[in-house]
Amino acid sequence: MKKYSVGVDLGGTKILIALVNKQNGEILCHVKKKTKKQKGSENIMKKMVEGIEELFAESKINIDEVSSIGVGAAGQIDRENGIIIGAPNLDCFNIDIKNFLADRFNLPVFVGNDVEIAAIGEMKFGAGRGCNDFVCIFVGTGVGSSIVKDGKIIYGATGTAGEIGHIIVDLNGRQCACGAHGCLEAYASRSAIETRIEGALKKGRQSCIKDYLEPGKAITSSMIQKSIEREDELVIQCVTEASEYLSGGIASIINFINPKLIILGGGLIEAVDYFYQKTIKKARAKSLPVPAAKIEFKKAALGDYSGVIGAAFLEERVL
Q1: CA dist 58 to 18, 20, 61, Å?
Q2: In DSSP terms, which residues pair with 87 in a beta bridge?
Q3: Residue 243 to residue 37: CA distance in whole angstroms
Q4: Is the pTM of this model over 0.85?
Q5: 317 near 130, Cβ under 8 Å?
Q6: Residues 246 and 147 both lie in one domain
Q7: Are 236 and 264 in the same domain?
Q8: Does residue 137 sit in the same domain as residue 277?
Q9: 126 lies in a domain?
C-alpha cells in the first residue's frame, strides 16, 4: 500500500495543497496559492498544477510513492466523473478536474465537496474522531456543511446533501452567488459580513476596520477580529447580525437531523471567537428543548488543514 496522497482544498480565496501521510494524517509539506477566480477557471487549474509540482519538488517524495490526488471544491460535484458541476464562489462550471489532473500526473484523481473533505479530515484525525454522527459546518467565503451518519457521508439522491448555505432564510431577501434570493450564505458568510460593512462605510458610517483596508483587497476574518477587539460598533453589529442568521440555520439542522455533534470551522469561525460563541449560544436557544440540551458543539481541530487531510482519503470513499 502506498503511504502518501496529495490533498487539494480549492476555496474561494486560496488553494491549499498538501502531501499527506495516510497512516497518521501528518502533513509532510504544503503549498498555498491564491485562487484569483476573476482570472477564470483555466487559471485556477493552472495554479493547481503549479502547486502540485511545487509540492513534489519541495517534499522530494517520488510520485511512485503517492497513491492518489484528492480535490475538494466548494459547490456541486459529480463525484463519479470528477467534475465540478457548479461552484458559484469560484465562477467554475462543468470543470473536468479528474481527467485534467490525471492526464498531467498519471495518478488516480478523486473529487469531492470542500466541506465533505473537511468532515472526513475531522472524523479521522480531528474534532469528530470517535463520533460517527455529526454535522460539519464551515463558514468562510460561503457557508457549507456535510452530514456524517454512522461514520459515512450522507450524499443525498443527487450528491448535494448538506447545502446549508442555500437554506432560504428570507423569501424576498438578498441575492446569493448561486442566483437565488434569501439564502443563508448571503447573510452569514464572511463575504456577507464584508458586503454589509462596505455598504455601511459607503454611507458614511465610521469604523476602525478602515485602518486595515487596502485598495482592491477583501475584508479578511483577521481584520474583523481586530476590529472586534477594538470594540468597533459597526463590525460588531454586522457580525452579530450574521450570527443571528447562522444560529437560526443551525437550529433548523438540530431540529431536523438531530445530530449528536456539530463541528464548526472555516476562516471566520477560527479567527473570530465572538462569532463562534454567539452563534452556538443562540443556536441552542433557538432549538427545541430536548435536542438543545443534548447537542454538543466543537470547533474544527485541524484548522486550515482539515480539508487537505480529508481530500487525501477521498479514494477510500468512491461512490
Answers
A1: 11, 14, 8
A2: 92
A3: 27
A4: yes
A5: no
A6: yes
A7: yes
A8: yes
A9: no
